[in-house]
Amino acid sequence: MRLATSLPLVAIALNLAVLAPQAQLVALPVVAEKPPMGWNSWNYFAERVDDKGVRAAADQLVATGMKDAGYVYVNIDDTWEGERDASGVLHTNSKFPDMKALADYVHSKGLKIGIYSGPGPKTCGGYAASLGHEEQDAKMYAEWGIDYLKYDLCSFIPAVMQKQAPDDKAAQMRLMIAAYDKMGKALKATGRPIVFSLCQYGWDAVWEWAPALGGNLWRTTGDINPHWDRIYAILEQQEGLEAYAGPGHWNDPDMLEVGNGKLSLAENRAHFSMWAMLAAPLLAGNDLTNMKPEIKAILTNRDVIAIDQDALGKQGARIYSDGEVEVWTRQLAGGALAVAVLNAGDNRYSTHPFRLSLAKLGLHGAQHGKDLWTGKNVELTNDMPLEIAGHDVFLVRIAAPK
Ligand code: GLA
């Protein structure tokens, strides 16, 4: 009896012994299977970020229901860095007395924590970055419990690329790619699943090479700011990039400005809707402690978030435009379709309404959908007139497009 029951255990033990070396080679758990969601300090706080503010952001993600809606990463951007000591260990500056304790706090809320560095000697803000200390820094992040790294090119351009290959742009790009590869490997070597976010403004068609070196997302443009013109310019630069996004690797049109600056409600809504159509990472960048209810309502619109986080992971594309009005679609899991009609212009009225061509979208006959901003059921018919205010959007989910 004893023998009989212990035999399978022996077999299991033997199997495990055989499997163990292989198991070590197995890839780390997949991160960023869906576009990462969370909050980042830069767009609102910039260099004013500190330990207290990051804890407050974590608290607010929970209190506002944003965590329940999917926002999990609490990302510290630039200006946390202090000086390196004689052994090359990078210390935090006085704004962050204990990074490990901060990570523990964020984790205790059921959230994850992100940090920022770059391949050059300095960050964009002029703080110490990782050049020559890549493995050491990656190990330290893992020891702190970091779950996400944004790696920003900045000073690597003059300090390494232009210095080592002054007249050879292609050679400069190879140096840049090697630097990202180095950190990608260093992160992997820690054994901790860490989202790797490339920030080099889309140079050298980053979408073509970032996934191979472990990039989970990559900025496609220069910086966003809370002005409609900038948000719209970034949107236009995403055209044609849809082929490069998918589970585990995403185009990043930069962090959200929803709730920042003087964006109107329509602009906030349109920005959020279009980032969802783009399967963009949704990193809120506003002051969560003083968030207005209408901004919270935008950021926590579950229907719109479901577009962004759709399991198919297929980025949307612009199908056609008619003057200042653009029509984008995104294929969703289960055969559903999201349609976004964006009025990028300032004025267009019922005297000359935009008419939605279902035919141009490959749809036939009336379509039943849900307007994701009013929550109401809608019927779409070919060439139906749509009146959309300037910088506003009409976003519809069609469950069973025909
Ligand atoms: C660059 C990045 C921004 C931000 C700042 C910080 O400009 O693109 O997103 O991280 O650096 O200095």
Can you walk through the features of this model?
The protein has helices at residues 2-25, 42-45, 51-63, 66-69, 99-108, 134-144, 156-164, 169-189, 206-209, 228-236, 265-277, 293-299, 302-308; strands at 37-40, 73-75, 81-84, 90-92, 112-117, 148-152, 195-199, 217-219, 250-252, 282-284, 317-322, 325-331, 337-343, 354-356, 367-371, 377-380, 384-386, 393-398. With 402 residues, it is of the alpha/beta class. Helix 3 packs parallel to helix 5 (99-108), helix 7 (156-164) crosses helix 8 and helix 10 (228-236) packs parallel to helix 11 (265-277). Alpha-D-galactopyranose is lined by residues 42, 77-78, 123-125, 152, 199, 223.
SSE map:
Elements: H1 2-25, E1 37-40, H2 42-45, H3 51-63, H4 66-69, E2 73-75, E3 81-84, E4 90-92, H5 99-108, E5 112-117, H6 134-144, E6 148-152, H7 156-164, H8 169-189, E7 195-199, H9 206-209, E8 217-219, H10 228-236, E9 250-252, H11 265-277, E10 282-284, H12 293-299, H13 302-308, E11 317-322, E12 325-331, E13 337-343, E14 354-356, E15 367-371, E16 377-380, E17 384-386, E18 393-398
Parallel strand pairs: 1-2, 1-10, 2-5, 5-6, 6-7, 7-8, 8-9
Antiparallel strand pairs: 3-4, 11-12, 12-13, 13-18, 14-17, 15-16, 15-18
Bound molecules: alpha-D-galactopyranose.
The site of alpha-D-galactopyranose (GLA) has 9 residues, from loops.
